[in-house]
Amino acid sequence: MSINLREIKRIAIIGATTNPQKFGNIVLKDLKKKGFDVLPVSPKYDFIEGIRTYKSVDELPNDVDLIVFVVPPEVGIEELKKAYNRGFRKFWFQPGAESKEIIEFSKNLSDADFSFIKCIMVQTNW
Q1: How far is CA 79 from CA 4, 31, 36, 70, in A?
Q2: Domain regions of the chain by residue span
Q3: Residue range 83-100: mean pLDDT, rounded
Q4: Does the pTM exceed 0.85?
Q5: What is the CATH number of domain 5-120?
Q6: Average pLDDT across the chain, whole number
Q7: Are 56 and 8 in contact (CB under 8 A)?
Q8: What string of DSSP letters covers 6-45?
Q9: Whole-number Å distance between alpha carbons of 113 and 69
Q10: What are the CA-CA distances from residue 103 to residues 7, 60, 76 (Å)?
């Protein structure tokens, strides 16, 4: 299966940040500008770019369509497990956020969709 980004409306961004030099901020602003409803996930901030921030995957509303990972793989694997256990099934790992461990883990989740290697900002340029 693959992720059809044209069907996606609400995107949670794990690793969102207020630092405009980091991809967690660049991706958030890019997707917001393109009309997606973005939900930043970070334990460090209450708001990012004026948007209420969720402290963890556990706080996210159930109607999130896609979770984007912009975190180191050792954080990503833990957040992926939490998100999957919460019932989320679409996961996008930005370049550098994936690892062999995450890819191997994903192969055992036949009811979930994953994207690795591709940058979501490039894939949403339509």
Answers
A1: 22, 21, 22, 11
A2: 5-120
A3: 97
A4: yes
A5: 3.40.50.720
A6: 96
A7: no
A8: GG--EEEEET--S-TTSHHHHHHHHHHHTT-EEEEE-TT-
A9: 14
A10: 24, 24, 11
